[in-house]
Design goal:
Length: about 375
């Protein structure tokens, strides 16, 4: 029987990362470290000055997103040290989270028959989306901050596009700016395209490069995906960004218009506020909080003789058969993480300590989970 498109995609998901779309609830006695987000308490910031929504924010919004949010994103990126002076709000598309931004970038840049470099281990949807477009994935080792394997494979035959995820999910590895510039230079010389998922850049305590300086600069075709989910610890807002040449942004607007008229007006207003200069200290607190949690969890795991492969961004990447890992020092208490098979690498578990609630943090002996952001 002929399958529907959704059934074809389901088959791709099952073949690529079985269980990726299913919800597996951990044992209630385990501590759940599988969700990749930062959970903090924004109420302290919102209480003194409640969000004042305007009637127009409940109407249809501009298809590209409100101009105030697009400007706020570029200003926040500049304040964070990203080279964005050459970019304007016309280079930015507001999306319903980074997933939609990445989906649109791939649909606008990848053609049937293309060979696309994809990080491994890596986020499962990259492979699913590339295969669904009739393109062929070619994998590279994403754990090297200098990008040696990526740079080497860029010289391979018929490579047309490269997906970069830096800082990287699940290993936490981040490309240096020198590596980013080398990748961009090679792609500009050979006419290859780059799609970079940088959603973890803003929460990385370690220095990391960015492709924003190469987006729409007249050389390689570069698209950068970003989000407030990690940057502002606001995954529930579902506000993401696609930064690219205005012509590609226009094509993405057309594509998105078939399934989604516009981003949420109230969500955009709140995101613009979170990215405002007034809350730059809050964003630095989020970065510091993530770094402290990573260090604390890594110390706990080492004390229990766990083999840590790497740490970075929001994640501790552990060599172990998963998705559970017992801690003898805590009476055999088990941590529940995301199994390596979800990222194409068995024998590993990804743990995210920044999503812990207060009770779970107490059980592990970590600092309180609720980070109150001061106004």
């Amino acid at each position: 029987m002929t399958r529907t498109f959704a059934q074809e995609i389901a088959a791709l998901v099952d073949a690529t990362a079985p269980g990726y779309t299913s919800t597996v609830e951990p044992d209630p006695h385990d501590v759940d470290l599988s969700r990749g987000e930062v959970r903090i308490d924004w109420s302290a910031m919102l209480a003194p000055d409640p969000l004042r929504l305007k009637p127009a924010q409940f109407h249809y919004q501009p298809p590209r997103g409100c101009a105030a949010l697009r400007r706020a994103y570029l200003e926040a990126a500049a304040q964070d040290g990203a080279p964005v002076r050459h970019l304007t709000e016309d280079h930015v598309l507001v999306c319903a989270g980074a997933k939609q931004a990445m989906f649109l970038a791939l649909n606008c840049m990848v053609r049937r028959g293309d060979r696309v470099l994809i990080p491994r281990p890596g986020w499962a949807p990259y492979t699913v989306w590339v295969k669904s477009l009739g393109a062929a994935p070619v994998y590279y080792d994403a754990a090297d901050p200098h990008g040696a394997d990526l740079l080497g494979r860029l010289g391979g035959p018929d490579i047309t596009c490269v997906i970069v995820n830096s800082p990287h999910n699940p290993t936490g590895a981040a490309l240096t700016q020198a590596a980013v510039d080398s990748v961009a230079g090679l792609c500009a010389q050979s006419g290859r395209q780059i799609i970079c998922d940088e959603v973890y850049r803003s929460v990385s305590a370690s220095p990391c490069g960015t492709f924003l300086g190469h987006a729409a600069n007249g050389t390689a075709q570069v698209a950068v995906v970003d989000s407030v989910s990690k940057w502002a610890a606001a995954a529930g807002l579902r506000i993401g960004f696609l930064v690219a040449d205005p012509a590609l942004v226009s094509l993405a607007v057309m594509m998105r218009g078939l399934i989604d008229s516009c981003p949420s007006g109230p969500g955009q207003a709140l995101a613009a506020r979170m990215l405002s200069p007034e809350h730059a200290p809050s964003r630095l607190q989020i970065r510091s909080f993530a770094a402290q949690r990573l260090e604390a969890l890594a110390d706990l795991l080492r004390a229990n003789d766990a083999h840590i492969a790497s740490t970075g961004a929001l994640y501790v990447w552990v060599c172990a058969d998963g998705p559970q890992l017992a801690l003898p020092s805590l009476g055999g208490l088990r941590l529940h993480g995301a199994g390596g098979a979800l990222f194409g690498q068995d024998g590993h578990i990804r743990f995210c300590p920044t999503a812990l609630g207060a009770a779970e943090a107490f059980r592990l002996g970590l600092a309180p989970a609720a980070l109150a952001i001061a106004s």
